Amino acid sequence: MTNNPPSAQIKPGEYGFPLKLKARYDNFIGGEWVAPADGEYYQNLTPVTGQLLCEVASSGKRDIDLALDAAHKVKDKWAHTSVQDRAAILFKIADRMEQNLELLATAETWDNGKTHSRNQCCRRAAGD
What percent of the chain has pLDDT over 90? Predict the structure, then answer.
């Protein structure tokens, strides 16, 4: 038996917290992390303790337009990518998610409050 407190009593950022999170997350647009155009962030509170988990970009119309512009720049290239190559890319993403399943499930538990087992997904569920 250890003297460690239950993880629900450990605040985000403290020693023993099950995740190593950045204090702030920006938008991922065009392959780069980009601060929100208006510079606004919202506080992402964990329902597990009510504590601040991290800050997340509060995106507005300008951010959406930037994301759409970036997507439009690569849509033709993606459309001309063979089905086999697209499938290989998606399977590689699925493999990476499975390799990090425990981390992702823990992050989702602290982010949305669902049970850890409920947050453990499998490759098949992504296709449903």
Answer: 55
